[in-house]
Every structure is written in C-alpha cells, then in structure tokens.
Here is the input.
Amino acid sequence: GGKGIGKAITLALTQAGCYVIITYKEDINSATETSRYSDLIYPPIQMDVTNLDSITEAVERVRKEIGWLDILVNNAGINRPSPFDDITLEDWVEVLDVNLTGQFLVTQALLPVIKDGGSIVFMGSVSSDLGGPLSVHYAASKGGLEAMCRGVARFVAPRGIRANVISPGYI
Here is the structure.
C-alpha cells in the first residue's frame, strides 16, 4: 500500500472514507506521508506473503487492533522478466509463491475476520490472457490467481462476500 498500484488503491479507499491497513514486506514508503486522509490509515503492518509465520502474526494484529475487515485487497506481486528458456527454477518458484501461493495463504488466514457482505479483491494482470515471451511464470501465476478467485467466490458466496480479480495492463 505504500507505492505503485498499492498506494493508488490506498489513496482511493481513503478518499472514499475507508480505513486502511497497509502491509509491506521490507521497506515502506507510507501513503500516509502524502495523503490528506492519513487519519484513516492504520499503522502499517510488516508481512511477507510467502512466510506463514509472518502472515499469522499480521492476522493476529488485525484481529487484536481492528477486529474485522470489510475489504481485503491482495496486491502483493512480483515479476522476474526473463526469456522462457532462461527462467530458473528459483525465479519460477518465487514468482508463483508471491503471486499465487501468497494470495491463497493471506486470503485463507484473513477469511475469518472478513465481515459477511464484504469483498475480496485479487490483483491479476492482462498477462494471464496475453502471455509473453519474457514473463511466462508471471502469466502462469496470474492465470492461476483467476482460477483460484473463481473457486473462492463460490466458497464465500453464502456469506455474501464477493471475490473478484482486477487485471490491469502494464503500469
């Protein structure tokens, strides 16, 4: 939530009157510094979406300090552009761990605190439809995210929770 698409999401949500919890992996360039709505932003929480202990700790802070969520925006993502035949196993695993497995772990961990009638948003990419010779692993992770979202949407529907994927182009 402190840079790029995440920062834009943070600012849009605060402008709409939402309270926002920003998570970050390492460095945080907090949106609170530039937002006139900074009173709507909780102190940022460090979380690594590839580390279950980190996720559990962040979820416990959310439960303790806030108690519930109306909206979960899964915005963590990485790309390691490389020609298909040069993609290393390490890059493949890292991209899928952050872009797909991390979204699964965070959503599953936070689902109990999402209010009935709430919303889950996954940040996909047009790459899942377009592919690309330099980002096969990225496209695969975002395609998997779309498939996962369809299943999550059906799972949470009885609680009135919506689950959607937003798929922006190159930013």
